[in-house]
C-alpha cells in the first residue's frame, strides 16, 4: 500500500508525465494506496495492534502523517472518543459532521437534510481534502479545550509537528508536481483533488457502513451523563459488520468489515477478525445481544443510503 501511494507520485515528480490522462491515472492509483494506508496500516498501528513491537506501531502510525493527516489528533478522535462513546451524539466525533449532514436522530434537522442521501457521497469524497487542510486544526483546538494536551507547551509542540508534517506531505504530493509537471497548475490541482476524492469516498463510506445504518442504535446519556448498559453491549448495539465472506475485500480495507470484532477487541490485529467473528457471534446469541451483519458491501451501502434518507426526513428526537 505504501508503494501504491508513493510510486505514482515519484513518477509524477520526475516531470516525465505530460499527458493529462496519465497524470489523473497516476494520482487516482495513489489515492487507492492512500486509502489502503488509512485502513490497513495506520489504523492498526495507532491502535497498537499492527505489531507486538510498540516502536513499529509508532513508526507505522506516522504513515497517516505522510498522507497529510495527523496521528496524534486521530488517536484522540478515534481511539478515545469514537471507541469509548460510539454513536453518542456530541461525544463521538465521527457522527459530528457539518450542519448539512445529519448522522443521528438526536441532532437538529434542516430542510436540506431531505436530500442528504443524494449529496452526502460527494462530500464523502471531499472529506480527506478537508481533513488534511483544516479539520485537524479545528479538532486540535477542540481537544485542547477538553484537556487532551499537556498544557500550552504540549499543545504548541503538537501544533508545530502537525504543521511540519503537512508541509512535507503537501510538498511531495502537490507543490513538486505543480513545479515539475509540464501542464497547467489547475490541471495538477484537479488531479490532486481526484486522488483525495477516491480516498475520501472509500474511507468515509467504509467507516459509515459500520455505524450509520437502520439496525444500529444512538443512545443518549441521562442527566448525570451516564449511558445505560455496559460498554461491550453498547458496542454490539451501535456497530455493524458487512461482507464477511469476501477475503480480498477484507484485505484491502484492513478488516474493517468486521467492525464489531474491532470495537470489542481493538488491540487485536485485523488479520484475526474473521476467525474471532464466529466466537463473538455465538457469544452474542448466547446472551441475547444483537450481532448486526450485512451479507455484502452493496447491501450495506443500500442500508446506509436508507438511513441517510430516513434521518433526512425524521424529526429531532433529542429530549431535554
From TrEMBL:
InterPro entries: FA_desaturase_dom, Fatty_acid_desaturase. Residues 24-292 form the Fatty acid desaturase domain. Keywords: Membrane, Transmembrane, Transmembrane helix. The chain crosses the membrane at residues 6-38, 118-138, 159-179, 185-207. It holds the Pfam family FA_desaturase. It comes from the Bacteria. PANTHER family: DELTA(5) FATTY ACID DESATURASE C-RELATED (PTHR19353:SF19), FATTY ACID DESATURASE 2 (PTHR19353). This is Fatty acid desaturase family protein. It comes from Christiangramia antarctica.
Amino acid at each position: 500500500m505504501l508503494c501504491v501511494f508513493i510510486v505514482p507520485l515519484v513518477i509524477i515528480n520526475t516531470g516525465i508525465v505530460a499527458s493529462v490522462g496519465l497524470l489523473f491515472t497516476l494520482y487516482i492509483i495513489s489515492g487507492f494506496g492512500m486509502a489502503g494506508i488509512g485502513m490497513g496500516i495506520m489504523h492498526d498501528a495507532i491502535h497498537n495492534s499492527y505489531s507486538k513491537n510498540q516502536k513499529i506501531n509508532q513508526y507505522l502510525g506516522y504513515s497517516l502523517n505522510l498522507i497529510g493527516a495527523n496521528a496524534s489528533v486521530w488517536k484522540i478522535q478515534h481511539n478515545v472518543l469514537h471507541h469509548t462513546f460510539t454513536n453518542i451524539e456530541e461525544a463521538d466525533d465521527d457522527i459530528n459532521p457539518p450542519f448539512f449532514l445529519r448522522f443521528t436522530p438526536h441532532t437538529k434537522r434542516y430542510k436540506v437534510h431531505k436530500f442528504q442521501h443524494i449529496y452526502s457521497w460527494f462530500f464523502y469524497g471531499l472529506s480527506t481534502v478537508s481533513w488534511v487542510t483544516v479539520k485537524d486544526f479545528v479538532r486540535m483546538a477542540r481537544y485542547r479545550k477538553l484537556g487532551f494536551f499537556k498544557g500550552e507547551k504540549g499543545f504548541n509542540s503538537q501544533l508545530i509537528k502537525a504543521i511540519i508534517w503537512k508541509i512535507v506531505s503537501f510538498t511531495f504530493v502537490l507543490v513538486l508536481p505543480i513545479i515539475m509537471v509540464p501542464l497547467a497548475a489547475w490541471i495538477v490541482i484537479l488531479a490532486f483533488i481526484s486522488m483525495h476524492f477516491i480516498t475520501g469516498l472509500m474511507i468515509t463510506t467504509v467507516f459509515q457502513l459500520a455505524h450509520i445504518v437502520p439496525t444500529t442504535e444512538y443512545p443518549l446519556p441521562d442527566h448525570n451523563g451516564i449511558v445505560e448498559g455496559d460498554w461491550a453491549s453498547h458496542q454490539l448495539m451501535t456497530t455493524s459488520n458487512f461482507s464477511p465472506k469476501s477475503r480480498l475485500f477484507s484485505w484491502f480495507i484492513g478488516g474493517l468489515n468486521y467492525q464489531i470484532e474491532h470495537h470489542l477487541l481493538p488491540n487485536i490485529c485485523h488479520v484475526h477478525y474473521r476467525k474471532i467473528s464466529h466466537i463473538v457471534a455465538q457469544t452474542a446469541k448466547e446472551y441475547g445481544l444483537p450481532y448486526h451483519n450485512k451479507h455484502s458491501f452493496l447491501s450495506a451501502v443500500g442500508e446506509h443510503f436508507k438511513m441517510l434518507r430516513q434521518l433526512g426526513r425524521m424529526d429531532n428526537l433529542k429530549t431535554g
